[in-house]
Amino acid sequence: MAKLSTDELLDAFKDLTLIELSEFVKKFEETFDVTAAAPVAAAAPAAAGPAAEAPEEKDEFNVVLDAAGDKKIQVIKVVRELVSGLGLKEAKDLVESAPKPILEGVAKDAADAAKAKLEEAGAKVSLS
C-alpha cells in the first residue's frame, strides 16, 4: 500500500460527508484505542443528528481542597481571594476542615485557575 501524504489525506477527507467522517473517526478510535479531539467529536453529532451521539463533556466542576499543606496561611489568603465575601475566620475554618469544596459548579478554566493558585500556595487540590 502506498503511503499517503498529509495533503493527500486531507483531500480524501474533503470528499467525505460528515456522517462518513464521523464513522471514520469512530473506527480510527477503536483501531488505535484513542479518543479524537473535542472539535472533531463535537462537530460530527451536530451535523449528523442522533445517529452519531458523542458522550457529554462535563462543563461544571467543583474545586475541592484536599489538604492545606505546610503553608496554611498562604492557602487561607488564596481561599479568601477565590471565595468572595469570606472573612478570615471563615476561610481559616474552611481550610482546617479539609477535605472541603472551595468552589462549586464553576467552568473548567475557572476551576483550573483556582486549582493552580491553591497548589502554588501549597495546598493539595482536586477537581470533581
Please tell me about this protein's structure.
The chain has 128 residues and is of the alpha+beta class. Helix content is 53%, strand content 14%. The chain is built from 6 helices and 3 strands, in the order αααβααβαβ. The protein has helices spanning 6-14, 18-32, 38-48, 72-82, 88-96, 108-120, and strands at 61-67, 100-106, 124-127. Strands 2-1-3 form a 3-stranded antiparallel sheet, with helices on one face. α4 (72-82) crosses α5. The longest helix is centred in the first third of the chain and has 15 residues, at 18-32. The protein is elongated, with a radius of gyration of 22 Å. The N and C termini lie far apart (46 Å). The model has no long low-confidence stretch (mean pLDDT 79).
Map the helices and strands.
Elements: H1 6-14, H2 18-32, H3 38-48, E1 61-67, H4 72-82, H5 88-96, E2 100-106, H6 108-120, E3 124-127
Antiparallel strand pairs: 1-2, 1-3
Which terms summarize this structure?
alpha+beta, 53% helix, three-stranded antiparallel β-sheet, 3 strands, 128 residues, elongated
Summarize the structure.
The chain is an alpha+beta fold and 128 residues long. It has helices spanning 6-14, 18-32, 38-48, 72-82, 88-96, 108-120; strands at 61-67, 100-106, 124-127.
Structural class: alpha+beta
Please give the radius of gyration in angstroms.
22 Å
State the share of residues found in helices, binned by percent: 40-55%
Total beta-strand segments? 3
Task: Categorize the overall geometry.
Answer: elongated
Biggest sheet strand order reads: 2-1-3
How far is the first residue's CA from the last residue's CA?
A: 46 Å
Mean of all residue-level pLDDT scores: 79
Poorly predicted ranges: none
| Main beta-sheet annotation | 3 strands, antiparallel
Work out the helix count. 6
Report the order of strands and helices: HHHEHHEHE
What proportion of the residues form beta strands (DSSP E)? 5-15%
